[in-house]
Amino acid sequence: MDLTTLGLEPDQISFPGLGIDRLNISSTAFTLFGVNIAWYGIIIACGMMLAIVFGLSQVKKIRYKS
Questions:
Q1: Sign of CA dihedral 15, 16, 17, 23
Q2: What residues contact 63, with CB distance under 8 A and at least 6 apart?
Q3: Under 8 Å between Cβ of 38 and 25
Q4: From CA 66, how far away is CA 51, in angstroms rounded?
């Protein structure tokens, strides 16, 4: 099923079971100093930070010494 059969544009999302017909979603989260920051970039950066925090907690847990 593609977007045209649902009557949606590429930047729209719909949840008919929840009674939400159309939401307009922009791929740009915000603009910083004239640079567009995309949502997927924020999600990737958050994942990397969580991986670093988890890795550091595991290093402390096993008391790794170089």
A1: positive
A2: none
A3: no
A4: 21
With CA atoms as reference, report the closest residue to 27 among 15, 43, 14, 16. Answer: 43
| Contact between residue 36 and residue 23 where contact means Cβ atoms under 8 Å apart | no
Q: How far is it, in rounded angstroms, from Cα 32 to Cα 1? A: 36
| Residue 14, amino acid | S
* pLDDT tens track for 29-61: 999 999 999 999 999 999 999 999 999 999 888
Is residue 5 over pLDDT 80? no
Cβ atoms of residues 12 and 21 within 8 Å: no
Cβ-contact 29, 15 below 8 angstroms: no
